[in-house]
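quick one, 56 residues, struct below
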Amino acid sequence: MRIPQIGDGAMINEAIKDSYEFLDKWIHPIPKTEETEANARKLRSNFFLREALTFK
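---
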């Protein structure tokens, strides 16, 4: 496990697509890769600001 890294958006987005049959209850529609990258960067920022502890 590690905190999200800059550039993880594409990898996370592929994982979402691969698991969408299960995730569609929580993630709808599938986000664009750019949105996933922005989210990964926000989660990383939150970690360093001690606002959230999110691991991928």
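The chain has a mean pLDDT of 92.
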